């Protein structure tokens, strides 16, 4: 009977394809929107996650997330170094800078300054060149995606030759030489990320009085991080967080203090409602169109439970195919945008969530659609 | 009481004082008023009478798709009042075949799949069910069309498929609601011919509701109803015997 149930649905081509298309759209949007959101979220914390050797981040107490720079006095670095339990502490600059492109177009970029001696805080992955080349005169390292993307575009959006090692660009009207390309993704706002040394930041941003954004701290082995955090707060008045705390703080900022989560959530919810409504309505109509035949089956001895199982199977099979198509399209989208400016992070949780949503939708639709069948009296088949 | 001709002791359906009403209070409409009827195995009974006289209500009760209010209705020896809903589902599944006025073949299934349905409901495997469906379709002259869709057939052919579906699981009772009303006279004759040949051969009881006087000659017994009671019961016309003897 179950095979016949599937045949009944599949042979109703128009409605069947309509249901599949609606469910595919629902699955696609339920996965794609969260994947982009998660991609953006991971970029929001990429700076913190990509510096593995650091135990504590020290900053102005008013800082809310990793790109929120509230400059400190350079003297604070030495005060932190003096706290018991600190093995080393290095300066880190986080800010923005205007890049002038060869065609005269300007592009706002994220600008990081890392410790001149150790290069701690530098990009986690180099695509071209070496991080030590930052010692070269006017040296900067640009993210590879932007070097062939937004930094290689004219004002009208036309593409020109990508930037590479040896290319030059203007930062704040000063010449900068690209000595390397890093593999980090652009930030949440898809702005290029440029690294240089902390002292060279003073050259490019000479008008800024204070440049120290964060102090990166390594703890001595066996030291209680909570005690050092407490001491830093007590003796310097600065806030200190472990990597995990600062990462969570940055994520929470984007989750709860901006409209990004709401926008993506609303988008996914509306897609679910629209796609789900179309699929449910189409399937419900299919069931109503076949009500007479379900009545015949009921008269011939099909129990209400069997009929519900047939209807549920029809909808669940359509749900499974729609889910497969939707996730397939999202995966293809992910492959296409990989290494691009679009943030995208499709993980098992998102796929599982989309599957759960489609499952709920399918079961709900099956229950809804089976109601008229359940209420149908078998004697109705003799009423013409 | 309307007894079987020839005094047959084999009773497939036994109704005594059968009553059924629809609606409640002042809107209550009686459909059957204390009806008595016996139908034997191997007997083709035709119910005739004006619309609203209770014919369809009677076959609905006999087919266990509708509950009666009072009286006795014993089908294949089982008192329907004592059966649970699940028992009635089982009774219909195993022992009742249905032929409808509008054929009611599932349009998206092939003829073989449509005919297989009663067997599948009875737990027969798909391969066996399809083979038996093909056999009965062959017997009804539609063996080459087993994989066609109902929409590709004429009305007469569709009703033959409906008969195949009603008989494929060898039910003891077959109820037919206006089986020829959508067919021309010649096709109607063919359909009744087939029903007699295939259904009665295995000693089934056939109950047919009809307004079509042309087919009355096929009946063993014609029962006329009016206002929820049986007003007349007569044996079939002599032509019936001729028609039966002329069966191929």
Automatic annotation (TrEMBL), chain A:
Q: Which InterPro entries match?
A: ABC-4/HrtB_transporter, ABC3_permease_C, MacB_PCD
Query: What is its membrane topology?
Result: Multi-pass membrane protein
Instruction: Report what the protein is called.
Output: Putative ABC transport system permease protein
Q: List localization entries.
A: Cell membrane
* Entry annotated with the keyword Transmembrane: yes
Keywords assigned: Cell membrane, Membrane, Transmembrane, Transmembrane helix, Transport
Alphabetical list of Pfam families matching this protein: FtsX (PF02687), MacB_PCD (PF12704)
Listed under GO cellular component are: plasma membrane
User: Per the UniProt record, which residue ranges are transmembrane?
Assistant: 260-286, 306-336, 348-368
Give the superkingdom in one word. Bacteria
The answer on whether this UniProt entry bears the keyword Nucleus reads no
* Domain MacB-like periplasmic core per the UniProt entry, residue ranges: 36-234
**Residue ranges of the ABC3 transporter permease C-terminal domain?**
268-378
Q: Which organism is it from?
A: Enhydrobacter aerosaccus
UniProtKB/TrEMBL annotation, chain B:
Q: Report the InterPro entries cross-referenced here.
A: AAA+_ATPase, ABC_transporter-like_ATP-bd, ABC_transporter-like_CS, ABC_transpr_LolD-like, MacB-like_ATP-bd, P-loop_NTPase
Sorted alphabetically, the keyword list is:
ATP-binding, Cell inner membrane, Cell membrane, Membrane, Nucleotide-binding, Translocase, Transport
Q: Which residues form the ABC transporter domain?
A: 13-247
Instruction: List the PROSITE patterns.
Output: ABC_TRANSPORTER_1, ABC_TRANSPORTER_2
Q: CDD domains, alphabetically?
A: ABC_MJ0796_LolCDE_FtsE (cd03255)
- One Pfam annotation reads ABC_tran
Q: Can the keyword Cytoplasm be found in this entry's annotation? A: no
Is Cell division one of the keywords?
A: no
What family is this protein classified in?
A: Belongs to the ABC transporter superfamily. Macrolide exporter (TC 3.A.1.122) family.
Q: State the protein's name.
A: Putative ABC transport system ATP-binding protein
């Amino acid at each position: 009977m179950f095979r016949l149930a599937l045949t009944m649905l599949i042979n109703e081509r128009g409605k069947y394809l309509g249901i599949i298309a609606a469910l595919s759209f629902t699955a696609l949007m339920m996965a794609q929107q969260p994947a982009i959101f998660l991609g953006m979220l991971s970029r929001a914390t990429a700076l913190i996650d990509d510096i593995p050797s650091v135990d504590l981040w020290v900053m102005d107490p008013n800082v809310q997330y990793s790109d929120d720079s509230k400059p400190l006095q350079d003297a604070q670095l030495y005060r932190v170094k003096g706290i018991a339990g600190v093995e080393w502490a290095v300066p880190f600059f986080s800010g923005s800078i205007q890049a002038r492109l060869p065609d005269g177009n300007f592009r706002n970029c994220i600008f990081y300054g890392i410790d001149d001696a150790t290069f701690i805080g530098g990009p986690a992955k180099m695509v071209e060149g070496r991080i030590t080349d930052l010692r070269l005169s006017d040296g900067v390292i640009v993210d590879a995606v932007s070097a062939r993307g937004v930094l290689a575009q004219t004002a009208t959006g036309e593409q020109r030759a990508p930037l590479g090692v040896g290319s030059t660009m203007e930062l704040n009207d000063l010449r900068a030489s690209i000595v390397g390309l890093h593999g980090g993704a652009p930030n949440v706002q898809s702005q290029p990320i440029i690294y240089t040394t902390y002292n060279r930041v003073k050259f490019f941003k000479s008008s800024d009085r204070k440049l120290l954004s964060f102090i990166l701290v390594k703890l001595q082995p066996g030291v209680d991080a909570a005690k050092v955090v407490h001491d830093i707060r007590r003796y310097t008045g600065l806030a200190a967080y472990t990597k995990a705390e600062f990462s969570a703080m940055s994520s929470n900022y984007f989750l709860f203090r901006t409209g990004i989560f709401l926008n993506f959530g609303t988008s996914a919810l509306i897609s679910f409602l629209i796609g789900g409504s179309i699929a449910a309505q189409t399937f419900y109509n299919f069931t109503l169109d076949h009500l007479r035949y379900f009545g015949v089956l009921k008269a011939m001895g099909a129990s209400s439970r069997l009929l519900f199982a047939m209807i549920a199977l029809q909808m669940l099979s359509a749900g499974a195919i729609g889910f497969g198509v939707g996730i397939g399209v999202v995966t293809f989208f992910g492959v296409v945008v990989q290494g691009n400016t679009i943030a995208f992070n499709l993980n098992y949780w998102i796929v599982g969530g989309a599957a759960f949503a489609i499952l709920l939708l399918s079961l709900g639709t099956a229950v809804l659609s089976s109601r008229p069948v359940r209420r149908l009296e078998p004697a109705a088949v003799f009423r013409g | 009481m309307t007894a079987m001709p020839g005094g047959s002791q084999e009773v497939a359906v036994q109704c005594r004082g059968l009553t059924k009403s629809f609606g409640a209070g002042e809107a209550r409409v009686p459909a059957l008023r204390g009806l008595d009827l016996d139908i034997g195995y191997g007997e083709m009974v035709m119910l005739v009478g004006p619309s609203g006289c209770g014919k369809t209500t009677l076959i609905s009760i006999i087919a266990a798709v509708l509950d009666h209010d009072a009286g006795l209705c014993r089908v294949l020896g089982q008192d329907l009042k004592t059966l649970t809903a699940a028992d009635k589902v089982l009774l219909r599944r195993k022992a009742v075949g249905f032929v409808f006025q509008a054929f009611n073949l599932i349009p998206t299934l092939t003829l073989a799949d449509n005919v297989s349905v009663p067997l599948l409901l009875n737990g027969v495997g798909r391969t066996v069910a399809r083979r038996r469906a093909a056999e009965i379709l062959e017997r009804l002259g539609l063996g080459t069309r087993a994989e066609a869709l109902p929409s590709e057939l004429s009305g007469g052919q569709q009703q033959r498929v409906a008969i195949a579906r009603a008989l494929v699981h060898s039910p003891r009772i077959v109820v037919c609601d206006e089986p020829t009303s959508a067919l021309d006279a010649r096709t109607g004759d063919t359909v009744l011919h087939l029903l007699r040949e295939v259904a009665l051969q295995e000693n089934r009881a056939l109950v047919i509701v009809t307004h079509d006087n042309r087919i009355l000659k096929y009946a063993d017994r014609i029962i006329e109803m009016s206002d929820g009671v049986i007003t007349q019961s007569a044996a079939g016309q002599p032509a019936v015997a001729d028609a039966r003897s002329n069966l191929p």
